[in-house]
UniProtKB/TrEMBL annotation:
Annotated protein name in UniProt: Response regulator
Domain HTH luxR-type span(s) in chain numbering: 142-207
Organism: Comamonas nitrativorans
Cited SMART domains: HTH_LUXR, REC
Domain Response regulatory: start-end pairs: 5-122
InterPro entries on file: CheY-like_superfamily, EvgA-like, NreC/VraR/RcsB-like_REC, Sig_transdc_resp-reg_C-effctor, Sig_transdc_resp-reg_receiver, Tscrpt_reg_LuxR_C
Modified residues (4-aspartylphosphate): D57
Highest taxon listed in the record's lineage: Bacteria
PANTHER family noted in UniProt: HTH-TYPE TRANSCRIPTIONAL REGULATOR YHJB-RELATED
Keywords: DNA-binding, Phosphoprotein
Length: 212
């Protein structure tokens, strides 16, 4: 049986190395992997089904706010995701929680706090810093609407948000153009949108607009 594994997804080599050091010292029974982009997260999870926790930065290349969190949660619902971020604004922490994160670890956290957070999530619990932000009904509604999408539909939605045409999306995702049209119709219906532009605006709202 493959060794259970922790995936650190962050594009800063020094911080990634620091995280890996903490994990290897505290969680000796786990192997570790690293990724520096959203694309690398996807390919790593596909290649390594033994991953049991993703530690995910919000500002890597290819990451659009909380889109990668939602994508991983949709495609791999059995794998918990803990956000690691230098932006620990209460609103950002609350949004991470509402969009399905099992934890939120500020990059300013001590090694002990990082280890405690990871341990809590691996034990099936959660770990978040104290939050002053109120739960947002708008975010709850958005999360519920996005949760209706299949993983493939979510990938198509992200392409829509980048302004790609159906033909371009088909090429990007290796799909038939007619299949893309079917997905787009389903996406708009599930999200309650009338146009591609409205759907793109929803994706835009996943981005972090709060200053730390």
């Amino acid at each position: 049986m493959s060794q259970p594994t922790l995936l650190v997804a962050d594009d800063h080599p020094l911080f990634r190395a620091a995280m890996l050091h903490v994990l290897r010292e505290r969680f000796t029974q786990y192997a570790t992997l690293e990724a520096a982009s959203a694309a690398a997260v996807s390919s790593t999870l596909q290649a390594h089904p033994q991953v049991e926790l993703v530690l995910l930065d919000l500002t890597m290349p290819g990451v659009r706010g909380f889109s990668t969190l939602l994508h991983v949660r949709g495609e791999y619902p059995h794998i918990p995701v803990a956000i690691i971020s230098s932006n620990d604004h209460p609103r950002v922490i609350r949004r991470a929680q509402q969009f399905g994160a099992a934890g939120f670890i500020p990059k300013s956290a001590s090694g002990q706090d990082i280890a405690d957070a990871v341990a809590a999530v691996l034990d099936g619990g959660s770990w978040f810093p104290p939050m002053a932000a109120e739960r947002s009904q708008a975010d709850a509604d958005l999360a519920a609407r996005l949760a209706q999408l299949t993983p493939q539909q979510f990938r198509v939605l992200l392409c829509l948000a980048d302004g790609l045409l159906n033909k371009q999306i088909a090429h990007e995702l290796g799909l038939a153009e007619n299949t893309v049209k079917v997905h787009v119709t389903a996406i708009l219906k599930k999200l309650g949108c009338y146009t591609r532009t409205q759907a793109a605006v929803l994706v835009k709202s996943l981005e972090n607009d709060q200053e730390a």
